[in-house]
Hints:
Elements: E1 3-10, H1 22-25, E2 31-35, H2 43-55, E3 59-63, H3 81-101, E4 108-109, H4 113-121, H5 123-136, E5 141-145, H6 149-157, E6 160-166, H7 190-203, E7 205-207, E8 213-215, E9 220-223, H8 230-243, E10 247-248
Parallel strand pairs: 1-2, 1-9, 1-10, 2-3, 3-4, 4-5, 5-6, 6-9
Antiparallel strand pairs: 7-8
Helix pairs in contact: 3-5, 4-5, 5-6, 7-8
Family: Belongs to the LamB/PxpA family.
Keywords: ATP-binding, Hydrolase, Nucleotide-binding
Subunit structure: Forms a complex composed of PxpA, PxpB and PxpC.
Amino acid sequence: MKMVDINCDLGESYGIYRMPWDEAVLPLITSANIACGFHAGDPATMRSTVEKAMEHQVAIGAHPGLPDMQGFGRRSMDITPQEAYDMVVYQIGALDAFIRSYGGCMHHVKPHGALYNMAAENMLLAEAIAQAVYDVRPELYLYGLAGSALIESADRIGLRSVSEVFADRTYGSDGKLTPRSHAGAVIGQPEQALAQVLRMVNEGVVVSTEGLAVPLKAETICIHGDGEHALSFAREIRALLEAEGVMLSAAGHA
């Protein structure tokens, strides 16, 4: 039986500015990546999101990003590997305190936005992030773009990696995500997203924007919690995979 995780980026509200889907999405996913206060999130949001995720028995991960709330962590920054290491350690620690206060255990770490994309290609940043996770807690999983430098770095140091694919993003022929600044980077049609998910899970390939079948490893599927169609995508993707006989579970939770 095939097994796959469905993850979603959550806890990205800030103060009075609220993401509308967080609580409704939780019963539909198997792991949650919770913002840690740099690109989004605040202490109250972190606490409440941890509490709700534990109520739904969803695996909880830290979602560390760049310190850029105005740009939602999606703008690249010129940072050193040491700065990346320090940012990741700091943010893991912040979320871990809330998880421990509820008697839970952190499951994984998934970098956010530009930090994620930078580490997918920059081996020095990837190594720094993987080392940060390993140094804090070597039993954690590290989520990264399938086939990326982040996955390679995790595997090299003995950190457990989880290869991630995206339901609502298009891919180039190099296996990288289409930059959000490009037209067609985000998939808005549920039918297209569902077809992409099915092929990634069943065949291990994604069709690029150039029409090429690109091989990839699909261990976890990301749904963006801030997306306009996040809730409907989550419902339809879960129903599709269950109908296909796919077991839905976070890594290590089967």
